Amino acid sequence: MVASVIKPTPNTDHDIKDLSLAPLGKQRIEWAGREMPVLRQVRDRFAQEKPLAGIRLAACCHVTTETANLAIALKVGGADAVLIASNPLSTQDDVAASLVVDQGIPVYAKKGEDAETYLRHVNIALDHRPNIIIDDGSDVVATLVKERQDQLSDIIGTTEETTTGIVRLRAMFKDGVLTFPAINVNDADTKHFFDNRYGTGQSTLDGIIRATNILLAGKNIVVVGYGWCGKGAALRARGMGANVIVTEVDPIRAIEAVMDGFRVMPMEQAAPLGDIFITVTGNKHVIRAEHFTVMKDGAMLANSGHFDIEIDLATLKDLSTSVTTVRNFTEEYRLPSGKSIIVLGEGRLINLAAAEGHPASVMDMSFANQALGCEYLIKQRGVLTPGLHPIPTEVDQEIARLKLQSMGIGIDTLTPEQVEYMNSWTSGT
């Protein structure tokens, strides 16, 4: 009934599931916006100053309520933006519909889209001939560099907010193919301290619980990787009463995990002990054949790294006699021995596949970094050299200040005497 009156905004191309979902999406976008006061202040300033006017922008992100608020801020700032999904299971179809219908933003995203559709959408984003790319894993940038050399002259720069994407950008720069500036949003303090540790920590367990409805207390949870995401997952799992084991390849992170009170061991020792495994490395095949064969019957595997390659699912499927969907986002792989291994969310980001991703209050800071990163690229056009550049410290600190202000929290400031002392070498004890 609603579908008969809802039409796409004129001249707005799109490839989404159902325009009639727009009213629900609009309601949910507004709800998330209540928890994003920093981005709201950025958007209000953008509305006055229009810093992105005349800029063609392509964003490859998880199409969620939080991303929608970023997309709206970019459009308000003057950008001619298109949005595609960075993950086939994270798209919220009602959000995609609202962005098309209510905001006139072209969106190319469907929950559950296959790899062929995803790649087609990547090329549609590049057909927009963007000046700035907001990427999530660097697939759009990599496709540009490999297949669209003629468009490199259009590019002012890119922003990237995932560890996986930063690793790829560093490799591109090392190989001499990254010929434009890239803003490392991922390593901004107001991003990785909060998004990765608190956002991933909470939302990962949320996704596991929604997919399985299991009790975490008393379970052996193996956290594979102790970066900021791993720290968050381990901390929250322990808070839920789980016995946490950490596996690592980095000796510094491993000793940090030990000092934080977690058991640390190689995966070959952890594999027979774990009830639930959470991969958060950004690498491939960190759980593989030799681990599958020694796992407990009913061991559960979940991924909160970026791509669906951390668990070697192709080998697991080859080893299995059957694969059965037993719940939404929950598949049982039956091995010849008779025992089963449970894979959650198809090995994709479990917090977005089975839940709703990070809380909006966390993404508030991450997406403020994205919006201000785009503005910084424009202001520094012709000044920034090719390669990776950090978010300026003053921008990072301003985002933190605005967040504290929105929470009603004040902090001290240095006195003139203290400033002088901190900048002097002549004063001793």
TrEMBL record:
User: What gene does this protein come from?
Assistant: ahcY
EC number, UniProt record: 3.13.2.1
What is the name attached to this protein's record?
A: Adenosylhomocysteinase
Pathway of action: Amino-acid biosynthesis; L-homocysteine biosynthesis; L-homocysteine from S-adenosyl-L-homocysteine: step 1/1
- Functional summary from the UniProt entry: May play a key role in the regulation of the intracellular concentration of adenosylhomocysteine.
Q: How is the cofactor bound?
A: Binds 1 NAD(+) per subunit.
Q: Which reaction does it catalyse?
A: S-adenosyl-L-homocysteine + H2O = L-homocysteine + adenosine
Hydrolase among keywords: yes
Signal peptide extent = none
Q: Where does this protein chiefly localize?
A: cytoplasm
Domain S-adenosyl-L-homocysteine hydrolase NAD binding stretches: 196-357
Q: Matching PROSITE patterns, A to Z?
A: ADOHCYASE_1, ADOHCYASE_2
Q: Quote one Gene Ontology molecular function term.
A: adenosylhomocysteinase activity
Q: Which cofactor does it need?
A: NAD(+)
